[in-house]
């Protein structure tokens, strides 16, 4: 379960966000709410959320100023989702340079909200809450030794039941999903870090370097080395 706070001086916006989280079966818990930028900064430092829904136009500090203050004095990683009226959209775009993950226009469109949250969470949500719980577990633990049997025991169900859910809702099996997730993480690390290929393979859960190379080429069409060279 991801922890989130809402920083918006319009109470209705907060209620809409809570409704959309519940409607979409998102594994997100709202742990705090602030109506001004200064209160938002305080709550972020106090509650340490994973996600912050942030309005642009607010009393004391606006959304941009909130992000600037957090970026300059806070070391934990936060996913900012900026929510703004159309009249402030151009202004809100500067939030992307400060690290915001997405910008949503008011009134919030449910499908856009869901897609934004899928990008932040790292996986596609389904209409099956139990499967969403499993996907969240995989997303949080992909770097360790995750196996279908172990996952089944963790969720007190059978391997066959999980396999059927993956096939029905995602169109792929458990191992294929896990490999795709790991390779996506590898692509990001190859682009954004100076870690060696061996270090990256280990970091994303591959103890066998040859198996990592095999899956990387199968899913991307190239080798990790060439991918890194072309990303530079």
Automatic annotation (TrEMBL):
Protein name: Stage 0 sporulation protein A homolog
Origin superkingdom: Bacteria
Domain Response regulatory as annotated: residue spans: 3-121
Record function comment: May play the central regulatory role in sporulation. It may be an element of the effector pathway responsible for the activation of sporulation genes in response to nutritional stress. Spo0A may act in concert with spo0H (a sigma factor) to control the expression of some genes that are critical to the sporulation process.
4-aspartylphosphate carried by residues: 55
Domain HTH araC/xylS-type: 132-230
Keywords for this protein: DNA-binding, Phosphoprotein, Transcription, Transcription regulation
Annotated InterPro entries: CheY-like_superfamily (IPR011006), Homeodomain-like_sf (IPR009057), HTH_AraC (IPR018060), HTH_AraC-typ_CS (IPR018062), Sig_transdc_resp-reg_receiver (IPR001789), Tscrpt_reg_AraC-type_HTH (IPR020449)
Any Pfam family hit: Response_reg
A GO term for molecular function: DNA-binding transcription factor activity
GO BP annotations, alphabetical order: phosphorelay signal transduction system
